[in-house]
Design goal:
The protein is mainly alpha-helical. It has one domain. Helices cover 84% and strands 0% of the residues. The chain is globular.
């Protein structure tokens, strides 16, 4: 949880630094740029989850030293994926940015931000592989060190670049790039102490094929999720620049929530994968129950914390007189986010650990196509008493709940399989 909480702090630090500038345009531009960068790179975030799933299973089946072979196979995927990312970035960025509202100043700043962030594509992909490997091994202190270092450095660099060098969005992008590079450097050093060498062996066809199948399902799942976020941002931008900026603040806090609760999901990934590989069904069922219960408790505590903080949290992130009123109108949605999302985050971890990635893919597609898309894009003519952004947030909460509901049959199948394994 500690390591995961540091992940969205990078975005929150950016929000806080830009949110106190005189103009709202830099904050809106980084919101757009970060959304596009995330849409592109997180589409390949299966490298993290796929590496975790196979690493945990192999660690349980053959022992921790053998897990190094999984990391090598994951690294073989970085080069082709990096080339694909670079091509997509150069082709589609000029086409996608204009879709986020009509403010040409914001569009120009967003392109400046992305021009720098895209240099970090290989760094981000390497980070996915290394973090996934360490989580699969149960060594979550290494990602914690990586991410804490990255966020401290990011905050210091962004403050210096923006407030002392007046670099604006370019300073934020450069700070994020350098911070991620430092985190990957720590990970490579730690992995070298555990057997990683520059002499990467040839691909293991069977293991690589297995990872590709898992990663294919995770790719579709993650791409669907990010398209939901992109549509959410675009619909908010269509209302006003102030609404886009306010939604960006809440999305940054959503990332804080999801990454905190993902601590239990990562525990489920690692432990369920390991005990499945070792053939210990009793432990698998216990881990499912304990991670679910603890995730619920953490979600309740987060909701209570946001309620107690009230408007103080918003004032820390921005003092813009146009954005703050919008945030205050929408604070109830922030209070509900941990409770709406905890079950889907936890169940994703269970599915990764059990290598039931096809169920994750199907649940995400169903929630996006059957729930979010029709609710978020339905004509608003039938009501004039409810704000459009309020309805947009309601659709998003329904989407989070639907993800968990659609995963319940798969959960019951996993539990039944473990019960059968015990009886056998």
């Amino acid at each position: 949880m500690l390591s995961n909480i540091t992940v969205p702090l990078l975005g929150l630090v950016d929000t806080a630094i830009l949110g106190h500038l005189d103009s709202v345009s830099p904050l809106a531009a980084v919101a757009i740029g970060a959304q596009i960068f995330t849409l592109l790179l997180w589409s390949f975030g299966f490298l993290r989850m796929g590496t975790t799933a196979v690493t945990a299973y192999e660690a349980g089946r053959a022992g921790l030293p053998q897990s190094i072979h999984v990391l090598y196979q994951s690294l073989w995927l970085v080069l082709p994926i990096g080339v694909v990312c670079a091509c997509i970035a150069s082709i589609f960025t000029p086409l996608v940015v204009p879709l986020f509202g009509a403010d040409t100043i914001v569009h120009h700043l967003a392109r400046e931000y992305l021009a720098i962030r895209f240099w970090g594509i290989p760094i981000t992909l390497l980070q996915y592989c290394l973090v996934g490997w360490f989580i699969g091994r149960g060594e979550t202190r290494i990602p914690m060190m990586m991410l804490i270092c990255a966020n401290l450095l990011n905050g210091l660099l962004n403050y210096y670049f923006v407030w002392h060098l007046n670099m604006g969005v370019e300073g934020v992008a450069l700070g994020s790039l350098l911070a991620e590079g430092a985190a990957v450097g720590i990970a490579i050093w730690a992995a070298s102490k555990r057997g990683l060498s520059l002499r990467i062996p040839y691909p293991d066809r069977d293991l690589l094929r297995r990872m590709i199948v898992i990663n294919r399902d995770l790719f579709i799942r993650t791409l669907t999720l990010l398209l939901v976020f992109a549509l959410f941002a675009a619909l908010g931008a269509a209302q006003s620049t102030e609404t886009l900026a306010a939604n960006a603040v809440l999305i940054s806090l959503l990332l804080l929530i999801s990454n905190a609760l993902d601590g239990f999901a990562h525990a489920a990934e690692s432990l369920i994968g390991r005990y499945t590989g070792a053939g210990v069904p009793d432990y698998v069922r216990r881990i499912i129950g304990l991670t679910g219960l603890n995730s619920l408790i953490a979600a309740l505590l987060l909701s209570v914390g946001f309620i107690l903080l009230g408007e103080t949290l918003f004032n820390l992130l921005t003092d813009n007189p146009e954005v703050l009123p919008r945030l205050k109108e929408m604070q109830v949605w922030l209070w509900l986010l941990p409770l709406s999302g905890f079950a889907s985050y936890w169940l994703d971890g269970v599915m990764v650990g059990a290598q039931a990635t096809a169920s994750m893919r199907n649940a995400m597609l169903a929630a996006a196509v059957l729930i979010f898309l029709p609710l978020a894009t339905m004509p608003w003519w039938w009501t004039t008493s409810i704000d459009s952004n309020t309805l947009l947030w309601a659709a998003f909460h329904c989407f989070l709940v639907a993800r968990a509901v659609f995963l319940l049959p798969a959960l019951l199948r996993i539990i039944a399989t473990q019960c059968q394994a015990k009886s056998d």
